[in-house]
Amino acid sequence: RQALALDGSFGYTEPPRQYQPLKPCLGWVLLQQGRLAEAEQVYLSDLADLPRNPWSLRGLQQVYEAQATPAAAQKLQQVTAELAATWAHADAGLTPTTSCPAFSD
Known about the structure:
Shape: globular
Helix content: 55-70%
Structural class: mainly alpha
Number of helices: 5
Order of helices and strands: HHHHH
Largest sheet: none
Low-confidence stretches: none
């Protein structure tokens, strides 16, 4: 969280200051800890900044799968469709395996 606060204070730079995007990785850590509501908020925040970011869409997909509620099932269906549409434009054979690019296969 400190890294996110610090990163946000610098403004936009090209290329980015860090190799790995911070929000999807924080969301992944929270997801692994079972802190689903916090992970959901981090992923949603990232998607507000970077719409259709596949790593955050994948993270939300994992959050909603873990929540296993009727409301989460509806959100899961929407996120899964958006993720499929996003990855349809990716390089052939590219598949998201985790919600943090630092830990993808």
